[in-house]
Structure formats: structure tokens, C-alpha cells
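The following record pairs a protein chain with its ligand, flavin-adenine dinucleotide.
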Amino acid sequence: MKYTLFLQLFAGFSLLFIYVWAATTTFGATIVDNLRPIQNIAAILGMLFFFVQYILSSRLKILEDGFGLDKMLHLHQYFGRAAVFAFTIHGALVLNSQWRRLGHFNFTTYVIIGIVVLLAMYLTAGLASTYKFIRLPYQIWKNIHLINYVIFPLALLHAFNYANPGSFFYYVWVAMAAGFAALTLYRLYRIFLIRRQPYTVSSVKQEAKDIWSLLFSGPDIDHKPGQFLFVQLLRNGKLSEAHPFTITSSPESKEPAITIKELGDFTSTIKDTKEGDQAFIDAPYGIFSNLNVVSSDNIFIAGGIGITPFMSMLRYLKDNFDDQRITFFWGNRSEEYLCFQDELKDLLDEMPSFSLVIVMSDQKDWPGEKGFITADLIKKYHPWESYTQFFVCGPPPMTQSILKELKETDIDKKNIHYEMFDF
Ligand SMILES: Cc1cc2nc3c(=O)[nH]c(=O)nc-3n(C[C@H](O)[C@H](O)[C@H](O)COP(=O)(O)OP(=O)(O)OC[C@H]3O[C@@H](n4cnc5c(N)ncnc54)[C@H](O)[C@@H]3O)c2cc1C
């Protein structure tokens, strides 16, 4: 499903809910008289935002194929914030109404459930925005985030208590409960399928300083070049959490490969992986692929380990004797981090329309380009046409700065495609 269709559907449901709320509500003359209706619509829209959040985090293929997991997860964050905002208004108006009517707060069981939901949402949404700044390990944050699977049923319980059986919104809550159950079962079923089809690590190879490639043997992965997988490694009887890595092998290859740069807790242990270790792979994901775009003139731009999707694309093009024009700009800190050197030289020999520009930021004696990849540098080697397609990939700071640079030129934004190594 396309991104715009998804947003249109969401807008349609929001308008329908607002229409039914307005049609079934008796409004007063002043804002104060209407606080109760506002409290209700805040709760209704909050539930819709909250539910859509689950749809977006469920890795549903029908959505993923349309707009990619990274976009789904970013949208998931916005919907989460919108749900927190709507529920905060709802909670504040409920307490305000109680205070005005009764002169005290009436903490019934269902009000307490509502407060628990709101506090838990503050915790999960707050940590989602701050876990990197407060240096909370990703896995701890993710485990805390899982309490959402308890919070949503509690929010539904609260909502059911205030809906008249047989009313429109009663059936909406029934539909959301069924949808939530189906999405949870879908996730559990995917985990079951992944566990039933383990892979074996068939090779561990050091490519460059702090960079390692793993090859797997196991069931074929039907993927496009540039897509990524989630992998869990079972080493010494201990199962790691699932991490996303781009598939660097060509789709034609029988053994999927990934190439990993040491960065943090998990990636720094990649060198301890041994041939014969088991792995569980969930794939493919992502829409960052040259096969999703029709083009004969391409500019690839990678920062460091952001080379991985491009290796898959180049290997695929070579396997298919597809000699499209490609200029690959690859930013690196210094020579010791250059991986795939021999293979890149072979590709340069075998693909006449492929050229490579390596740009070093930290190595003063580098004989080639030094500094950072800029629009002027790109133009020097490959003046673009209106149909040139740009593919950008790398760690977030580099990707963001290149994107900013490209968007300030005359390049049509529709021709810029990117993958940021972060959700
Ligand atoms: C679509 C995509 C493709 C990627 N492809 C590659 C690749 O080909 N090669 C490569 O070296 N790196 C790739 N990465 C980055 C890689 O996933 C992270 O570097 C790695 O997960 C960091 O884990 P860590 O425990 O070593 O580091 P940490 O220091 O624990 O984490 C660093 C950051 O990585 C992210 N991260 C950590 N754990 C996870 C997780 N389980 N799931 C999702 N994100 C997490 C978080 O943003 C965290 O802040 C890719 C990332 C994405 C999103």
C-alpha cells in the first residue's frame, strides 16, 4: 500500500469518527459547556492514533512493500506522540470535570486504569525520544517499549466501560480489539516461522578495520538488491536481539551475506561469531533498491559502511550484465576502513560505465579527493541530468548532511532515494 493511500485511509477514518461524534453529541453554548464532548473526541482520536501505532509497528508486508519499514517506524513515532497528546487532553478534562462537579477526584477502577495507561505512555513515548541522549541501551528501551502490548488492552478496557453497548463506538472498540489480537498473532506467527527455519553461519571474514562479513547457508531469501534483514545470532547458547543489516550479496547468490561495522554492544562482538553458529533471519525489508526506480543514469553516495546496499546493487547489475551509468561516491575516514577493495577493482574492470570516487575525510596523504562529499564534488565527476537518480546511504549524520546539500540544488526531490542506518 502506498504511503499517501495509507494517510488518506487514516484521514477518512478520523473524519468518520468526528462526524459520528458530532452527530451523536448535544453541544452547549460555551466552551465550558462543551468540555465533556471535547474530552470524548480527544479519547476517540487518541484511541485511533494508538491503534494505528500498532499497525505501523507490526512489520505488515502489505504496508512495508509500499513505503518501507523506516518510514513506517517514523510514522509510528508521530502517531505515538499524537496519542499521548490526545489522551493528556482527555485525562486533564476528566479530572477537571470531576473537580468542578464533586469538589474532589473520584478515582474509580476505570479512572485508575486510564491514569495507568497515560503514565505508561509518558514513559514509553518519553524514552523513545530520549533513550539515545540518556545513553539507555537500545535493548532495555525496546523491552520497556513492549509494555505497550499491555497498555493497549487496558486502554480498550477503559474505553469499553464508557461506551454504550450497541453504539457506533462500541463496535469501533470491538473492531480495534479484534485488529489488535490479529496483529499480535501475526507477529507471534512470524516469530514461529523464523525459528522453524534457522540459518547457519558459513563464513566469517574480516573485510577491513572493524568491518566483518558473515555468510549464511539456509533457505533462499527472495530479495531485491539494497533490501535488509533482521538477524539474531545464537552463539554459545545465547540468542542475541534482532538487529537490522543490509543484505550485501546479490539476489542471485545462494548464500546471503551481511557486512557489519563495529559500533556498539552487539556489533563489537561480531568477530566472536564462528562458522556453524546458528542464526534466525527475518527478511526481506526495505524499499531502497535501484530495481524500484527506472533509470539508466545513477549517482550512488555512501558514507562508510553505507556501502552495503550498493554492493548488493553492483553485484546484481554485474550478474545481469546491466551496464547502467553509475558514479559511486564513497566517503570514508581513512584507507584502513576501505572494504571490498579487490571486488570494487574487478567491478571497475568489468563494468565500463561504472566509476568510483573515494573521498577521505581524515587522511591527509590520500592521493584522491579529500574532505566531504559535496554537490560541487559530485558535479565535477558526474554533472547530473533531470533524469539522474540519486541513491544515498549511511549513518544518520552523514546521510542527513548529504540530503540537505542535494535538496539545496536543482535536483528533483523525486529523484533522491535514501536509506538511513537508523529507525
Ligand atoms: C535499515 C538498516 C540497515 C542497516 N544496515 C547495516 C549494515 O549493512 N551494516 C552495518 O554495519 N550496520 C547497518 N545498520 C546499523 C546497525 O543495525 C546498527 O549499527 C546496529 O544495530 C547497532 O547495534 P549495537 O548494539 O552494536 O550498537 P548500539 O550502540 O547498541 O546501538 C547504536 C544504535 O543502533 C541502533 N540499534 C541498536 N540496536 C538495534 C536493534 N536491535 N534494532 C534496530 N536498531 C538498533 C539504535 O539506533 C542505537 O542507538 C543498519 C541499520 C538499519 C536501520
